[in-house]
Write a structure and sequence with these properties.
The protein is 36% helix and 22% strand. By secondary structure, the protein is of the alpha/beta class. The strands form two sheets. Strands 6-7-8-3-9-10 form a six-stranded mixed β-sheet, sandwiched between helices.
Length: 282
Amino acid sequence: MAIQIKNLSYTYLKKTPNEVEALHNVSLEIPENKITAIVGHTGSGKSTLIQTLNGLITPTSGTIEFKDFVITNKEKKNKRIKELRKHISIVFQFPEYQLFEETVEKDVAFGLKNYGFKENEAIEKAHEALAKVGIDESFYKRSPFELSGGEKRRVAIAGILAIDPEVLILDEPTAGLDPVGSKIILDLIFELNKNGKTIILVTHDMDIVLNHADHVIVINDGAIAFEGKPSRLFSDDVSNYSIEIPQLFKFCKLLESHNVKIDIDKIRTIDDLVDQLRSRHG
């Protein structure tokens, strides 16, 4: 099911001199089984929004609905928050900083044991999750602190995948990684989506949005400034959002201005552009 957000507002330090409204009357739908990117300048409200989606913070007003879960500002209605987090899970920026167990397999199994799984069941599911992120059994008994940055990131993601949520939220999933590590993480995210996971990405990297996202939401000063396809976003004036148009998209628009006919909605990578040019111009 889609996530329905209705008239959502959130205020930090409410009723104090330092009161700040981080989200204002946000209404949108996050589609099922798609990759949705959430973008906007630092301080726009992106992190606040994703924290409301699985009840880490509850809205000042408005509602979030997913399946039969409803998050409101009424405490009595939010008693199933822990159960909700099995369905909607967040991988925060630099999740490897939250690794703490003595071995990789124990770290991935930790969340499962919190949900009542016995030790042997939790370890078995941890191994399955590690396999999904490309971490083989030679890593199971190693300390997570001995791993590379990209390997730690994958172990952290495995800790969430072991719980098997339907919705996976990733906050800046490639931050701090080299190009190889970034590609491994992005390929993993794309594969998870192909296998049925709904993915929500918070990112400043517009190439990721163009190459991977089906749907993009721009948050500007706590409100929704845009919602739709990445190609439509990059065709608009984005100067007010502190967003950089990807170079590939700029080049496609330049070609169009020289009467080169291309279907820009179907171009995510340079290979897509080359294929179109070959098919249209022999």
